Please model this.
Amino acid sequence: MKFLITGASGFVGQYVVVQALRKGHQVRAVVRPSSDLNQLPWSNHPAVELVRIDLRRKAGIADALQGVDAVIHLAAAKDGDFYTRFAGTVITTENVLEAMVEANVMRLVNISTFCVYDYLRIPSRTTLKEDSAIECDPLERDEYTQTKLIQEELIHEFQQNHQNSQVTTIRPGLIYGKDNIWSTLLGGQLTDNLWLRIGGYATMPLTYIENCADAIVCAGERPQAIGQIINIVDDNLPTQRTYVKKLKQCRLPIPKTIPINYTLMRSIAWIFWKYNKIVLQGQARLPGIFNPVILDARFKHFRFSNKLAKQILNWQPEYSLDAALTRISSNDNLLQVSSPSLADTKEITEENLCGLAT
Model:
């Protein structure tokens, strides 16, 4: 197959490109115009075409889709204010969907997130599944969650308006890997190297980056995935405490922490939240750890299942937590596929997109 992969230079995108190449697929990788190709070990692979376009603009996207079998849409903005994230997530999705219709490429694997679930209203200690409730009050959540919820609405409208669409939505849990081992699911950041460690016994919905990338490519390969929403987490998920213990055992760098009980922190958050709502009329912008809605999304006790992913995608997470941390600790380049000459690679810009062969 030939995949167009948006967000190919991002943390997840780089591994999805590698996994697609390892499975024998061709890749048209969409990267930002400012992307440094020296940071992409697969950029000179002969099965890769590099496309430099800004997905926040419509120009060139439909041309980049010519000859493509399916789109894996990873592009999203995780940093910045709401408007930056809206442009980087929602506008890009609108433009990609419009271009897919124009190019008559209707197979889409859209990458969403566990953030879209309604953690406040889902009972504690239940199993989070694909049909669990979606957040009904997004304004109480962070900007990333808000924009990803809008993105899912766009995807749903696309499916409703185009009966020939072939969409799979993948919702990964917390994706970890090299340079991405610490998370807000472990606490709240106080300073550059000091975190408030909240709780210790909640199960973490982890998925190792190489396991997750494999699931995403499987979703693009398998017709059985069309029309499905699929959660991705690994097997034998650890608690927060177990995960941090294993990070220490592997001598991986972690910040200094101040521990606090989750129940106590939740009580404090409710006090701050109610004071802000009643006295300050909601004018204060509280840190996430002082918002009980966000606090529940990060630290409330749930169970998680990858049963549907295994059934529909015929997928098994290859690396356990211990094996993944060993790979992370190594000096190996996990993104290396091969090293042919750079001259073997097509690099495509907006100026020459119209010359793409179908």
In short: The chain has ten helices and 15 strands. The radius of gyration is 21 Å.
